[in-house]
Design a protein that fits this description.
By secondary structure, the chain is of the alpha+beta class. The chain contains eleven helices and 15 strands.
């Protein structure tokens, strides 16, 4: 252990207490962040205190938007945070990407009230990561005890608020198993991720694909890059107000077309540049000195996370080029292992983004409703698992042996 690291000092673990906080601002940033340094996810940008503060301070998450912070923390006698979990009281199911609209409708048809509910998640962000965050300097046994404490605290809060349910989404597989053992209902989903197997160039990656898929991708890139749009990758101080102004309009256009409402405010993007500029990778397209499209990515650890896309033009294959192929280029250049391109989209498979399981866990108060949901999940899990296997075989790689 490196004693020069501030989080390497083992904190006092006596006289622990659990608290519910109505704002991320009630936790010192350095204390929250010491709990996010978890093996495999040590630099996940969406777990940072800064990210939650940006959401809150920009007005994107609050009681009015239906994302009322109820963060759970476990503190010692000195007030140091030893464990925490991002938690929200919600009156809808927007911005979650693990769809429970059918559950809500069924429960309400039966005379129940599905909302409000509790949601342990990163708002508007379908990215896998730890949800039961524990101080990195503690031993594994104590970490397990604190995770149990967080779970018990969330269930007690759910009972206190008399909500219908508690949902923990896009958690890690280890946490999924812990929660399953604790009696939570288990659900799996799927996403499409690209894996860098040490490629030296995009052509090197294409060399692993079947001839037909390789030619198809090359044609798509040629078509996208012949439309007259110049594509720029921007970081830090390269990103100006005009970029965010244009990108926000693209984002609004996409939101109105897909969901009917935008989750993020304009202030969110300014605060993102101000507080997390080191993580932002903004890919913008420009035509005749006018910004016409953009894709927002965040970089953390060994992964580039694709978040939002929007455009003011309708050119063939431009979306694939900006969101998927330029992301692969960036990952290869910066030696990142993964590109996660967001939720859904089976079309990503033919472009090298292969299916991977995602996990969620669910606590439901009503025993009858819980039984119905459990029966549904018992049938859904093997169906999703079989779909992942089937889609993997449909991938563009020369053989299933060479696919990620």
């Amino acid at each position: 252990m490196d004693d020069e690291r501030p989080d390497a000092v083992i904190p006092d673990t006596t006289d622990l207490k659990i608290r519910v906080l109505p704002s991320i601002g009630n936790v010192p940033p350095e204390q929250w962040d010491k709990c996010t340094r978890i093996d495999g996810f040590s630099d996940n940008p969406f777990l940072r205190h800064a990210f939650f503060s940006i959401l809150e301070d920009s007005g994107s998450t609050n009681a009015k938007t239906g994302w009322h912070p109820q963060h759970i923390v476990i503190e010692n006698a000195s007030g140091d945070t030893l464990a925490c979990a991002p938690l929200f009281l919600k009156n809808h199911s927007y911005g979650e990407y693990v769809f429970d609209w059918g559950w809500a409708e069924a429960y309400q048809r039966a005379g129940g009230h599905y909302y409000p509910k509790l949601q342990c998640a990163v708002p508007f962000t379908p990215v896998t990561g730890p949800r039961l965050l524990v101080h990195s300097a503690l031993d594994n046994n104590l970490k397990a005890d604190l995770q149990t404490g967080l779970l018990n605290g969330m269930v007690e809060l759910a009972q206190h608020h008399k909500v219908s349910s508690l949902h923990v989404t896009f958690l890690t597989k280890d946490e999924y198993e812990v929660m399953g053992n604790a009696g939570f209902l288990e659900r799996i989903g799927e996403q499409y991720h690209w894996r860098n197997k040490g490629y030296e160039s995009f052509d090197n990656f294409l060399g692993e694909l079947s001839s037909r898929k390789r030619k198809s991708i090359r044609k798509e890139r040629e078509k996208a890059n012949s439309c007259g749009v110049k594509i720029h990758i921007l970081h830090g101080n390269d990103i100006k107000t005009r970029h965010w102004d244009s990108f926000y309009q693209f984002y609004m256009n996409t939101s109105e077309r897909k969901w009917g409402q935008a989750y993020l405010t304009r202030d969110f993007f300014d605060l993102l540049s101000e507080r997390m500029s080191d993580a932002v990778v903004l890919i913008m397209g420009e035509e005749d000195n006018r910004l016409v499209c953009g894709a927002l990515n965040l970089q953390g650890g060994n992964t580039l996370f694709g978040r939002n896309w929007g455009t003011a033009v309708n050119y063939p294959m431009l979306h694939f080029e900006v969101c998927y192929y330029r992301a692969i280029d960036y990952a290869i250049e910066h030696k990142l292992e993964w590109v996660e391109a967001g939720a859904q989209g089976q079309h990503k498979i033919q472009r090298g983004y292969m299916p991977k399981p995602t996990y969620s866990a669910h606590w439901i108060a009503d025993s009858g409703f819980r039984g119905a949901v459990a029966d549904f999940l018992d049938r859904e899990r093997p169906a999703i698992a079989n779909e992942i296997k089937f889609q993997t075989k449909l991938g563009p790689f020369k053989s299933t042996r060479s696919s990620p």
